[in-house]
Write a structure and sequence with these properties.
By secondary structure, this protein is mainly beta. It has no helices and eleven strands. It has strands at about 1-5, 10-15, 20-25, 30-40, 45-50, 55-60, 65-70, 75-80, 90-100, 110, 115-120.
Length: about 120
């Protein structure tokens, strides 16, 4: 199984920065794509940013130019650097990883427990 543990959320004023981390652990063959999603109260979960194993990235239009996703493949860890935060970025942020338990078992989607990001105006 793959366990994802997120860290780095918190309360910040508008214009501030936060860095989220998500580390994958457990017994697995490999991790492929990783991503960050967020869900605000009363809204659907949405993709914030994604990254492939070779570093290809994609971002939601609402965060382009402010957020940067990166990863350390050796540590099976993905990061989300969030700058110029706005109150509308307030949400629970979830890490997602696509993993293989063995060379033939997968891919499966795994989710972290979520970390709260609150941006005050």
């Amino acid at each position: 199984q793959v366990q994802l543990v997120e860290s780095g959320g918190g309360l910040v004023q508008a214009g501030g920065s936060l860095r989220l981390s998500c580390a994958a652990s457990g017994s697995f063959f490999g991790i492929n794509d990783m991503a960050w999603y967020r869900q605000a109260p009363g809204k659907q979960r949405e993709l914030v940013a994604g990254i492939t194993t070779v570093g290809t990235t994609k971002y939601a239009d609402s965060v382009k130019g402010r957020f940067t996703i990166s990863r350390d493949n050796a540590k099976n860890t993905v990061y989300l650097q969030m700058n110029s935060l706005k109150p509308e970025d307030t949400a629970v942020y979830y890490c997602k990883a696509v993993g293989f338990l063995t060379v033939v078992h997968g891919p499966y989607d795994y989710w972290g427990q979520g970390t709260q990001v609150t941006v005050s105006s």
